[in-house]
């Protein structure tokens, strides 16, 4: 009850300071202010959700075959949790983990991304104001040069019982390696290569709207952004034409603080170079540039929202996560072909598809090898729903009623001599 009340107070303080928190996100990441405001609300909701879940950590009484014994199951906090978070959602990725950890009774050490430490420190200030005890929520910012060293220290320290990480698959594998020696509890939300499939039966206008929402949020820099657009041959040309029209009409690149900006800068120069590499590779291998294709005239880290057609599976943009405003379209002919392309990746975080055929909806939703499926929907994240992937996209789930289990140990107690 005490933990519940403190988390709720932290939530209330976030809501009181939501505008300041949003401005911090935009200032340090470039995210358009409207999106930053949305992230703060989403972020605060995790504290509200887990403030309620804190009072619902139930055990069990198990019937036994012996009259002299009783069997109990208790749930207890795992201990100190080390939380390593990314820059693309510098507030929400913290509260989704920390809310669950504190609700379970764990203390936490947060290492925020090197590019976005201020959101974590702002949350720490509000946690302090909420009365969360000193030492329960700790923030360890570090430079890019020290990031690997700090991450390794957290994963190998014997006082840390749990590691929760959101970031790239490559970094996740390194952290798993470090955590293995002490067999720590680990949850990972890693990279994705989300397919976005549009079948001939789809409502094309609905699919275009979903593509816009899924692809271009945070300038294409989210783990669940659509990375590969698979469009069936019967509606391929109409979809490409309408998507290009929607991109030209509604996407505005600019300073995240300026009214009307929908696409801010990418996080750094390296991110821009990756988008450029994917575009040039695709064009060299025969893709068609429909719109965009180069750095924006604003310069620095800004890139034009880009649409490519005639993309093939051997191109980098079809095999690697771009993490930028690039939409590559691959034409397919049959449902089996689409599933084969979608499931060929060694990662599986999110997947999307559009269809009006009920039988097809069941078949494809079950056969897509991902942890989360959006059916006729381009935005699927919600605090009450489990977030996580399969294959090399991670371990465990965050958010929802399942998220708190990642921070709890199950203890069996056998009472004898009764």
Descriptive report:
- The protein is of the alpha/beta class and 418 residues long.
- It has two domains: 2-190 and 393-415, Aldehyde Dehydrogenase, Chain A, domain 1, CATH 3.40.605.10; 194-375, Aldehyde Dehydrogenase, Chain A, domain 2 (3-Layer(aba) Sandwich).
- 40% of the residues lie in helices and 20% in strands.
- The chain contains 13 helices and 18 strands.
- A seven-stranded mixed β-sheet has the order 10-11-12-9-8-14-15, sandwiched between helices.
- Helix 1 packs across helix 5, helix 2 crosses helix 3 (33-53) and helix 8 packs across helix 9.
- The longest helix has 21 residues, at 33-53.
- It is globular, with a radius of gyration of 23 Å.
- The mean pLDDT is 97.
Task: Give me the secondary-structure topology.
Layout: H1 2-16, H2 18-29, H3 33-53, E1 60-62, E2 70-77, E3 80-84, H4 92-104, E4 108-111, H5 117-130, E5 137-139, H6 144-156, E6 160-166, H7 169-180, E7 185-189, E8 194-198, H8 204-216, E9 226-232, H9 236-250, H10 269-284, E10 288-291, E11 306-309, H11 316-319, E12 326-332, H12 335-342, E13 347-348, E14 350-354, H13 358-367, E15 372-375, E16 390-391, E17 394-395, E18 408-415
Parallel strand pairs: 3-4, 3-6, 4-5, 6-7, 8-9, 8-14, 9-12, 11-12, 14-15
Antiparallel strand pairs: 1-2, 2-18, 7-17, 10-11, 13-16
Helix pairs in contact: 1-3, 1-5, 2-3, 2-5, 3-4, 6-7, 8-9
């Amino acid at each position: 009850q005490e933990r519940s009340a403190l988390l709720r107070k932290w939530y209330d303080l976030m809501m009181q300071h939501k505008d300041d928190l949003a401005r911090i996100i935009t200032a340090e990441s470039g995210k358009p202010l409207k999106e930053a405001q949305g992230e703060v609300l989403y972020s605060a909701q995790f504290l509200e959700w887990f403030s309620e879940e804190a009072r619902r950590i139930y055990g069990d009484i198990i019937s036994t075959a012996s009259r002299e014994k009783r069997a109990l199951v208790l749930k207890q906090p795992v201990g100190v949790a080390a939380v390593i978070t990314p820059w693309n959602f510098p507030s929400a990725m913290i509260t989704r983990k920390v809310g669950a950890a504190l609700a379970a009774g764990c203390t936490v050490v947060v290492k925020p991304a090197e590019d976005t430490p201020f959101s974590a420190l702002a949350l720490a200030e509000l946690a302090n104001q909420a009365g969360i005890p000193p030492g329960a929520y700790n923030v360890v910012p570090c430079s890019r040069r020290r990031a690997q060293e700090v991450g390794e220290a957290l994963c190998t320290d014997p006082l840390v019982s749990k590691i929760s990480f959101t970031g790239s698959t490559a970094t996740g594998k390194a952290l798993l390696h470090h955590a293995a020696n002490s067999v720590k509890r680990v949850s990972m939300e890693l990279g994705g290569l989300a397919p976005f499939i549009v079948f001939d039966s789809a409502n094309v206008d609905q699919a275009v709207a979903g593509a816009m929402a899924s692809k271009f949020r945070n300038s294409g820099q989210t783990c669940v952004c659509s990375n590969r657009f698979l469009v069936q041959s019967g509606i391929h040309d109409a979809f490409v034409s309408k998507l290009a029209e929607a991109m030209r009409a509604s996407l505005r690149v600019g300073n995240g603080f300026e009214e009307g900006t929908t696409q801010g800068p990418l996080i750094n120069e390296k991110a821009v170079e990756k988008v450029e590499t994917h575009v040039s590779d695709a064009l060299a291998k025969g893709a068609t540039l429909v719109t965009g294709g180069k750095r924006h005239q604003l310069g620095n880290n800004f890139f034009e929202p880009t649409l490519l057609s005639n993309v093939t599976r051997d191109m980098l943009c079809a095999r690697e996560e771009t993490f930028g405003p690039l939409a590559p379209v691959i034409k397919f002919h049959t449902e089996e072909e689409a599933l084969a392309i979608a499931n060929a990746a060694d990662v599986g975080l999110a997947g999307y598809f559009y269809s009006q055929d009920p039988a097809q909806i069941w078949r494809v939703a079950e056969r897509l090898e991902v942890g989360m499926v959006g059916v006729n929907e381009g935005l699927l994240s919600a605090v009450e729903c489990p977030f996580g992937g399969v294959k090399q996209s991670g371990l465990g789930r965050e958010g929802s009623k399942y998220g708190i289990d990642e921070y709890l140990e199950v203890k069996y107690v056998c009472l004898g001599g009764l």
